[in-house]
Design brief:
The complex is a heterodimer. By secondary structure, chain A is of the alpha+beta class. Chain A has helices at 4-10, 27-38, 89-99, 190-194, 199-206, 214-229, 235-263, 267-288, 310-334, 336-342, 350-356, 360-364, 373-377, 396-420, 475-482, 490-497, 501-505; strands at 12-13, 17-18, 22-25, 42-50, 53-60, 66-72, 77-79, 102-104, 120-121, 128-129, 150-154, 166-172, 175-182, 297-298, 301-302, 438-444, 449-456, 462-468. Chain B has a five-stranded parallel beta sheet, with helices on both faces. In chain B, helix 2 (23-30) packs across helix 7 (156-177). The chains are: A alpha+beta, B alpha/beta.
């Protein structure tokens, strides 16, 4: 069987693409790549369309050698990957909606992001006005058959303060037999807005794909642009980016642990974790001038340097966390009524996590050790000391525990950053190197790995930019994890996954 | 756990003192809120949050209003699960076309009298998403908006000031009518 490297060698390698190789391949190689995915020699990282070309991003099983294969659709179609490899199904349905390219052989003919409400069809491809009298068809949910099954429709407007999406449960009494998600409600057309945009405006958009991961998205976008331009970033900026990224991780993990406990009606931990989250955000605000640190990471560096009192303020935050967090987790661990809800609930098998390439806590709680900070890796993480915690249990409890251990790792990293922060400038002007043009980056947000891909036009503007949220490979797994659980445990499981709606819908 | 409960008892509340209501918001409301409607509500408002396409940044800060430092409920403001229980719809996002119908139906399900508060820059005019084929571009294009709270996202304190202004005007309405 051919390896990814063989396939690349057979293809036509594009010199303007960095830092990973990109090759245009023919149908044979495309089919070989599908086999690599099917047999878990490679993991799917992304799939998107650009004009009449489909790009497939994948990485070898060791997580070390990522690459992009491009297929030129001569008749507006390409051999479906989702047909043989389930993780690609929703990506292909979205690609068909947006670009109009047809995944040949894909059995699911339903639209995914296009709910029949937009004024255009295929906004990213050969856009054409939507047929005026076209009535949105009712969405055909997959049927569940059996005696005394009932359906529970939930959403898009939910009971809590959360994002919109629709969940269709088929239940037998209390037990969930099938869950089917329907997403796309918050589709904002971000990728169309990104096209022909200046780098500055595009960076604002990239930072608003999923607000909770704004630092990670801004970083992914910036790194992709820097790769495309062949630009160097000052070292101090690299370290400050990592500092912001870890603060973002802390804030989100605190929030998530509290919210999961709250969904099991344990309000006390929610209150304490909420306090810690708020303290992280306030520290971020005093250090970088924005509570979520939006628009602080920009192509070329960072826009806000750490003020002189910054190290002291963050030091104070760390001391506070170290003082109270262990006690909170001890309380979690010793509260039998709470653990009764989390242990053994929402099991995700290691096999599915591996097959879907689930990132973040979801993957790491089910035995998948991948972390983009480590492999393929990016600076300054090669100089920071940290562990990637992995558990095998795959239940809600394991996902809480991974978050707890990641918090501990982030604390250690932040301490090291404060100790060893290099001095110097924090931003460099961007100028395009000759022969450059396309860039890609993989960045570890709190939710998992975010893929950013850009191609730039000759005038330096964006030609096409694709941003892939980690949720794409986690949402489908929630459907699997919830099977056989009771309806009342859904909020708990959903929170323990905490997928992004906005990041997924774009 | 006992130790933590004890610590909380002797420590006293962490909740911070309330900010004053926002002047600009008061002015915007004075022009819009119907006096008769205000009388019925007294000093409490139930809020239903609707995400109409936000990036989820605004939701994070709305969530923060419930943490111990801001403690929204002490003002008589609380989040409810159903629009049928709500007086106020707190709407975020540039109103995506895919969410428009759900937003309108949520509004219709909310009993009179009701207010609509548009939260965040994209709820005002679409913000960075303005001009997209997939967005209406602002809550005002779909529902009558009583109050805008700006920011991307507005910090909890800004949200609190806006909501307190809403509460103030509701209360003044009832006393003025007495
Ligand atoms: S105003 Fe800003 S934070 Fe709020 S939803 Fe819009 S982009 Fe996100």
């Amino acid at each position: 069987m051919k390896t990814l490297r063989d396939i690349l060698e057979e293809g036509q390698v594009m010199a303007q693409h960095r830092p990973w190789p990109r090759a245009v391949v023919g149908e044979d190689s495309w089919q070989q790549a599908i086999r690599l995915l099917q047999e878990e020699q490679c993991t799917l990282l992304g799939l998107w369309g650009e004009n009449e070309v489909v790009h497939l991003a994948l990485i070898d099983a060791q997580g070390k050698e990522p690459a992009i294969l491009s297929f030129e659709c001569e008749d507006g179609s390409f051999p479906s990957i989702g047909r043989a490899h389930a993780p690609a199904i929703r990506l292909e349905r979205a690609l068909r909606d947006l670009s109009g390219l047809d995944p040949e052989g894909l059995t699911d003919a339903r639209a995914w992001l296009d709910h029949g409400k937009w004024p255009v069809d295929h906004p990213l491809g050969q856009a054409r006005p939507a047929e005026a009298k076209r009535k949105p068809k009712p969405y055909a949910f997959l049927p569940a058959e059996g005696e005394s099954l009932h359906e529970i429709p939930v959403g898009p407007v939910h009971a809590g303060i959360i994002e919109p999406g629709h969940f269709r449960f088929s239940a037998s009494g209390e037990t969930i037999v099938r869950l089917e998600e329907r997403l796309g409600y918050v589709h904002k057309g971000i990728e169309s807005l990104l096209a022909r945009q200046t780098i500055e405006r595009a960076a604002l958009l990239a930072g608003r794909v999923s607000g909770d991961s704004t630092v990670a998205y801004a970083l992914a976008f910036a790194r992709a642009i820097e790769a495309a331009y062949g630009a160097e970033v000052p070292v101090r900026a690299l370290w400050l980016r990592a500092l912001m990224g870890e603060l973002e991780r802390l804030a989100n993990h605190f929030g998530d642990i509290g919210a999961i406990c709250n969904d099991a009606a344990f309000a006390m931990l929610h209150a304490h974790c909420g306090l810690l989250r708020e303290q992280v955000l306030r520290t971020a605000d005093s250090c970088f001038g924005h509570r979520l640190m939006m628009d602080r990471v920009v192509p070329g560096g960072v826009r806000a340097d750490l003020p002189r009192e910054g190290a002291r303020m963050i030091g104070g935050l760390l001391a506070q966390v170290r003082d109270s967090f262990p006690e909170l987790m001890e309380m979690y661990d010793n509260t039998a009524s709470l653990k009764d809800r989390t242990v053994g609930t929402g099991l995700l098998s290691a096999k599915l996590a591996r097959q879907f390439g689930a990132g973040g806590c979801v993957g790491r709680a089910s035995g998948r050790a991948f972390d983009a900070r480590r492999t393929p890796g990016y600076p300054p993480y090669d100089q920071l000391e940290f562990e990637v915690p992995v558990l095998e249990a795959g239940d809600v409890n394991a996902r809480i525990w991974i978050r707890k251990r990641e918090i501990e790792q982030s604390l250690v990293m932040i301490e090291q950053i404060l100790r060893e922060l290099p001095s110097g400038p924090v931003c460099a002007a961007l100028s395009m190197q000759p022969g450059a043009g396309e860039g890609v980056a993989l960045v570890e947000g709190f939710r998992g790995d975010i893929l950013a891909w850009v191609s730039t036009a000759a005038d330096g503007r964006i030609a096409r930019c694709h941003l892939r949220d980690p949720s794409w490979f986690q949402w489908p797994l929630l459907e699997a994890a919830i099977e056989g659980n009771i309806v009342a445990d859904f909020p708990l499981c959903n929170k323990s996954f905490n997928c992004s709606y906005s990041g997924h819908d774009l | 756990m006992r130790r933590m409960i004890f610590k909380s008892l002797v420590h006293g509340p962490l909740t911070e003192t309330a900010p004053a209501a926002d002047d600009a918001a008061l002015a915007e409301l004075a022009a819009q809120v119907n006096v008769v409607a205000r009388r019925r509500l007294g000093r409490t408002l139930s809020i239903r949050e609707v995400d109409a396409g936000s990036c989820n940044g605004c939701e994070l800060e709305i969530h923060a209003l419930n943490n111990v430092l801001y403690d929204l409920e002490r003002f008589g403001l609380r989040f409810v699960a159903s629009p049928r229980h709500a007086d106020v719809l707190l709407v975020t996002g540039p109103v995506t076309l895919n969410m428009r119908e759900a937003l309108e139906r949520t509004y219709q399900a909310t009993p009179q009298p009701k207010w609509v508060v548009a939260v965040g820059d994209c709820a005002r005019d679409g913000g960075v998403f303005a001009g997209s084929y997939a967005c209406v571009g602002g809550v005002g294009a779909v529902l009558p908006v009583d109050l805008h709270i700006s920011g991307c996202p507005p910090a909890p304190l800004a949200l609190l000031k806006g909501l307190l202004a809403l509460l103030d005007s509701a209360e003044r309405g009832s006393s003025a009518a007495i």
